[in-house]
Structures are given as structure tokens and as C-alpha cells.
Amino acid sequence: MTDQTAHSQDEGVDEDRRNFIHIATGAVAFGGVAAFAVAAVEQWNPAADTRAASSLDVDISKVPLGGEIRVLIGGKPFFIRHRTPAEIAAAQSVNVAILPDPETDEARLRPMADGTLNRAFLITSGACTHLGCVPVGPTQGNVGAYGGWYCPCHGSQYDTSGRIRSGPAPTNLPIPNYTYVSETVVNISL
Predict the structure, then answer these.
(1) Which residue numbers are catalytic?
(2) Residue 109 burial (10 A CB sphere; 0-12, 13-18, 19+)
(3) From the CB of residue 9, how many other CB atoms can be counted at a distance below 10 Å?
(4) Which of 61, 99, 104, 105 has the fewest CB within 10 Å, making it most exposed?
(5) Claim: this prediction has a pTM higher than 0.70
(6) Contact, 181 vs 64, CB < 8 A?
(7) Chain centroid offset of residue 29 CA
(8) Angstrom distance (rounded) from CA 187 to CA 179
(9) CA-CA distance, 160 to 148, in Å (whole number)?
(10) In the predicted model, is pLDDT for residue 2 greater than 70?
């Protein structure tokens, strides 16, 4: 065997070895970067206790007809109103075209599991859209001129569908994310 032949055989082994080392090093580096990225992104997600505080299951069967209950989720107020047939009829009979923030009553309700709307229950944010005050309602004995909620701070009045009817508030009471867990339990989340 000549020196040239031995030298070319050694180079073939060295090149294979070098390629393997480069590939192995690259794979380990890529795995480390991926593990770091996953850990960094997970750190940005809210903790389990924070996620739990941002939703609430509410038994709506406890809300008296014509009344409401108020709940806090993540420090924000929400109204759950059990509307009477007269309140539902009043909400549905409004000419939406004359409203400052036109929205039908049906658009403000979320379907139950079977796809039907439970018109008796309206769930809204409990913060006035003017300056964030908490309006009074049937529980406090003042439903305003439109039967819904009244914000005594600046005079905004909402109807039985939580739509702004008069006053400085620019928009309707927002409808939160909520789903029916059962016919009597809703999950409200931020």
C-alpha cells in the first residue's frame, strides 16, 4: 500500500467522522434551543390559579324571576338577569334602527347546547361603557326608564337587553364569553 492510498483511506474515515460530529452537534444544539423556546413560551402563559380565577360556573336557577345576581370574575362585575316574559317582549319589540348601538336581542344571547336560545337569561358585563361605573338594576330597585339598568353617575340608561338607550355611554353593555354547561349552569369566562 502506498502512502497516497493510505492517506486517501484515512481522509474518507475522517470526513465521515467529521460529518457525523457536525450532524450530532447540530441536532443537540437544535434540541436545546427548542427546549428553551418551549420553556420560555410556557412561562408567558398564565398560571393555573390565574386561569381558574378568570372563569366561573354559575347556577342560574338561583336567580329570581325579574331579578339578577352579580358576580365578580377576575375583579370584573357581571350581571345575570332572569327576565320576565314582559321584559323579553320589551327587548324584542325595540326598533333596532333607532338605537345608538344597534343590536338585536337575539344577537346578545348565546345558544344552549341544543342550539336554542334561553331568552329568559341575559348575561352582560356589569361596567357602564361610559366610564366603567357599575349601573344599578332590579336588585337595587332602579331599572331606569327602559327597565334594564341605570348608571346614576352620569345618567346612562340601558334596556332589558343591556342596550344603551340614553345618556353618554357610547355602546351596549358587552356580552362576555359564556357557555351553557347544562340547562341551569353557565360558565362565564374573561
Answers:
(1) 154
(2) buried
(3) 11
(4) 61
(5) yes
(6) no
(7) 39
(8) 5
(9) 4
(10) no
* N-to-C CA span, the chain: 79
Mean pLDDT of 160-167: 96
Rounded Cα gap, residues 88 and 85, in angstroms = 5
Integer Rg of the chain from CA: 30
Q: Examine the pLDDT at 11 and tell me if it is beyond 80.
A: no
For 160, the grid coordinates are 332589558
Show the cell assigned to 96: 333596532
Q: Which cell goes with 108? A: 346578545
Rounded to an integer, what is the distance from CA 151 to the centroid of its chain?
24
Asked if 128 and 134 count as a contact pair (C-beta separation under 8 A), the reply is yes
CB atoms < 10 A from the CB of 66, how many?
13
- Three-state secondary structure readout of the chain: CCHHHHHHHHHHHHHHHHHHHHHHHHHHHHHHHHHHHHHHHHHHCCCHHHHHHCEEEEEHHHCCCCCEEEEEECCEEEEEEECCHHHHHHHHCCCHHHCCCCCCCHHHCCECCCCCECCCEEEEECCCCCCCCCCECHHHCCCCCCEEEEECCCCEEEECCCCEEECCCCCCCCCCEEEECCCCEEEEEC
Query: Which of these, 119, 140, 141, 129, lies nearest to 174 by C-alpha position?
Result: 129
